[in-house]
Write a structure and sequence with these properties.
Elements: H1 7-22, H2 31-55
Length: 57
């Protein structure tokens, strides 16, 4: 499961892009959403890396 975690931001960014395109919102206006997606994905990845480090002896 951890190996495919890198797909999370890619899938979310594609979904956000499709949402913006469907609602005719310019990409420039939706740029903040991409930033939020990348930050949240980074936090999730960091959490899982921390849990792996903590649980290894």
């Amino acid at each position: 499961m951890f190996r495919i975690l890198f797909l999370l931001p890619i899938v979310l960014c594609v979904a956000w892009y499709l949402f913006l395109k469907q609602n005719r919102v310019p990409i420039k206006q939706g740029k903040k959403g991409f930033v939020y997606i990348l930050i949240i994905s980074g936090v999730v990845l960091g959490f899982f890396l921390l849990m792996i480090k903590v649980t290894q002896h």
